[in-house]
Amino acid sequence: MSAPSLSQHTTTLRFLDSADGSPLGCLASWPNHRFTLTDVVDVLRRFGLHVSDHRPLDEPGAHHFTIAPCGTAAPDAGVLDLIADAFVAGAEGRTDIDDFSILVLQEGISWRWVDLIRAAVRFLAQAGIGLSPTYMLGCLTATPGYAAALAALFDARFRPGLPDREAAVAAAASAVAGHIDRAATFDLDRTLRGLRSFVDATLRTNWFQSGGTKPYASFKLDPSALTVGGAIVPQREIYVHSRDVEGVHVRAELVARGGLRFSERPEDYRTEVLGLMATQAVKNAPIVPGGAKGAFVIRPGSTADLTTAYTTFIRGLLDVVDNVVDGAPTTPTDTVAYDGADAYLVVAADKGTARMSDTANAIAAEYGYWLGDAFASGGSAGYDHKAMGITARGAWVAVRHRFAELGHDVDTQTFTVAGIGDMSGDVFGNGMLLSDRIRLVAAFDHRHIFLDPDPDPDASHRERARLFVLPRSSWADYDPAAISAGGGVWSRTAKAVPLSAAARAALGIDAETQTPDELIKAVLRAPVDLLWNGGVGTYVKASGETHGDAADPANDRVRVDACEVRARIVGEGGNLGFTRAARVEYARHGGRCDGDFIDNAAGVATSDREVNIKIAVDRAVAAGTLAPGQRETLLAAVTDDVAEAVLTASRDQVLALGCSEHDAPALLTQHERLIEDLVRAGRIARDGDGLPPTAEIRERSRAGTGLLRPELAVLLAQSKNVVASELAASSLPDSPACTPWAENYFPAEILARAGSGVAEHPLRREIVVASLADELVNRLGPGALYRFEERFGAATADSARAYVVVSRVLHTEDIRTRILAAGSDARSTLAELSALARVVEAEMAWLLRHTARRTLRDVLAGACDDADTPEALVALFAAPVAAALGDRPSAEACRGAFANAAVALRLGTDPARVAAARDALIDSLHLRWLLEGFATRVRGSYWEAMGAAALRDEISDRLDALVVTALDGSAADPTGRTHRLVRLLDRLRGEDAVDTARLAVIAGELRLLDR
After folding, report:
1. Which of 396, 648, 862, 882 gets the most CB atoms within 10 Å of its CB?
2. Residue 573 has pLDDT above 50, yes or no
């Protein structure tokens, strides 16, 4: 408990010389005010000084205090000066005077070093050491000298300009280690070791900036160096601590982004933010930066307002990252850095900070931070997410698709909805206006519960639209006349809510009266078509989880189990509404959902594009190719283009999951291998990410089922993260063949008017990596590149190179566009997209096999100097493939395109003639059904799949050889063998079963024909 604040008074404290043996005394004065003796006595007690006598002096506000002798020697003059300095600093609001202040007396350290110890202890409490700050302080007071030694170590590591730093650090570290070695209990050792790890984990600090006068401290940490922590370990963490505010910003990668929120969980805000970062890291898989998140709290007793606290937090973050000056990263003055260059820090609005981006950007401008108003997206010169409705629109893409898979059109057919949120909110409000066929029967937020048992779609849509534009509206503002009979709005503080027959029917319950908490549970369990989450909180857990697993104690009273949710579809516009295990349980019971990191990814994608577009535009302005006055106009002009690109990306991700679900039973074994690989790589935790154990996968294999959509969503996102990190480590992103993935990221008008900024974009490489990884995994599904690695030993960059070549030569994106524009039903469209993916995969496999064997050069001898580079391969194959396929080929027409082109180039013949010969041969041998459906027909163990793939490759090679034989006229007349092969294939087709044994027979027969 802190001592009474003296901060509004000018205070002095001076200790008297007691050399003559008289009791220690001090003079304290408060010229402007007189405190109660109790206040002053308590403040002195915090420093270990107990008052035995007091008398007022003649000077107004001046007092003399006599300090009672203690059992130890009286403090020396130097320590007394430190106490006096700390006393005044506390009165002036520069430090806390609390139980930690005893360390000034015990350790002989200044109040600033006590601030360091206090900050470190409070961080350890947040990091999960399991000990209270009070208990850890007791460990420190029981270990005299340790706090001073720790302060000395920190000083040796970070004091600017320190001569022979290495020796100073070694000496200080040795002293600290000695104390730890002598710790007699486990808790004592854990405390001392944890504090040492805080200092060791610190990479930078603002402690010595501005002469050490900043009223807050920030520490950039490598959390992996801490001795405490949980399963989620950020790559970097910034901890900000002051009298008023405390908070952390965590990053999964150096280049990362995420929102800063005002947390209402002062005891465990770090736990809150780590969970959000983990979700953000998955959500950010399709975009340039990785996941990040920040949260801050206003400390108890502080009078700081939200804006002041936010400002301090932002300053603390910017103090410990690099700036870019003249194109080079520059470390802040008076800062010792133990990490490399770190100049990418971007933030965004979040809960409680929705309108503070301009504040953050003003601070960035004050610091001269290189990103300018791209530092905090969504400010006055950025994209207003609520005005765009972009997060809700992105989630609605997923909702629309899930309904379409059930044969329901949300734009023309009515559907019932239960919701979490209210119309003043961005995600909930925008979402509930995206269709005028919505029948919203129930909703709740933190204030009210809304019931409308039989809503009129048109009238209720108009009323929701009115509330959306009404400032600070709530459900209490909903027009009662627009609510159907038996409905109404109730406060969550009501004692009980009476339920009409119509309300009971809409909610599927029998109770005539319920408490607000019971009614919220009923809303979550309502038998509706859609449960739309646009609010804050975790409301659904798995039946096997505890409320503690949901890590949201505020909603423990209203949370339900996933198996109780009766909505056919869930749309997660808000974060963390379901636990990951809850999504899996809900899907297992027939519900359709993907995950919050899929549904609401459009918001972060918009912010990412805003940042990168601003960087490009600002570069063009600096280069003089764009007038400064045109900047804001240009940014506004491409708003719709940004929205279209983001929503297209959302659609592609949802379609990728649909295709993965379509093929999931056939690919179960391969998905299991991918899970094992991701676990080994530390990308996922099988239990924590809601993925099935091996035994359950065996059961699904026997039942002929595959992974569920929420499970596939995790694999999809984490596969993108893995592919992106491996692409970034390769040279492929620098290839000219990858230029389209950089340029297509930007709106056409940006390319036209700020092209120089795009060409010289400092994150051009990262944009290529993110865009290519996103497209690759979306088009081929999670695990495709892992299959190539297992089959051919192909690195991710090799497979990505093959994809770049295939997609550009075959114009697969054009084929995909035609499939989507055809207007087929959802399931037919998914089947066609899956078929296209299998063709692309087959053509990539052909390229990988021939380049891996180094045979492509032989096949194309003399045609190209370096046939292994993607740009050379594109140039080489583009013309013969186009000649064979024509302008608008189907997906299936592209099968064998590269093999045909290679034959045409080798023989110097017409590519169309080669393609015709291949088609004729395939049809005469009755092979087409096997080639087209191979990927989904072969099932079984890992070895079965690998063996079948190898045989499929051999069949393909034999077919290539037979095509050459047919073209050069050297073929014998193997009529008997041909008939034998046709009979075998027809029999195999009738059995509708493909395995390695059958494929080996077919390959053998083709080998005989090839002779």
Report:
1. 396
2. yes
